[in-house]
Specification:
Helix content is 86%, strand content 0%. The protein is mainly α.
Length: 135
């Protein structure tokens, strides 16, 4: 081998070594990036599991709240009707009419039906203004 061929061979070996070092550096960088991605994936999976648990708890709370609202609606379904009746009868008109009816002998049931009074209101009007207790 002559000198120029040896120089070319050494140059090629140097280039090959540089390419190998570059490839090794790229492989190490890729390996580090893959490790970071695995760690991020694990953290995301953990967060996703925690989020799933929180959604489950929120759904459970929502279901219980819905049940409570339905129960309250059932227990107080007549309140809106009662308020509407009270508002429609005016402040004194129903009581005046109920008093007149009680004086004519109407019983509490009829006063409740006819004038929208509550049972206790009708009983009070009948006691105070009925035939048995003239006022």
């Amino acid at each position: 081998m002559n000198m120029p061929d040896a120089a070319v061979a050494i140059g090629l070996l140097g280039i090959a070594a540089a390419v190998a070092a570059l490839a090794l550096g790229l492989a190490l960088a890729a390996f580090a990036a893959a490790r970071r991605l695995r760690a991020q994936c694990a953290a995301l999976e953990s967060n996703l599991a925690a989020l799933g648990r929180e959604i489950g708890m929120a759904a459970s709370i929502n279901a219980r709240t819905g049940s409570r609202v339905k129960r309250i609606e059932q227990e107080y379904s007549d309140v809106a009707d009662r308020i509407e009746t009270l508002e429609s009868r005016g402040p004194q008109g129903s009581f005046d009419g109920a008093i007149d009816s009680a004086r004519r002998g109407a019983d509490p049931g009829k006063l409740t039906q006819q004038f929208g009074l509550s049972r206790s209101e009708a009983e009070l009007v009948a006691r105070l203004h009925g035939h048995e207790n003239p006022a």
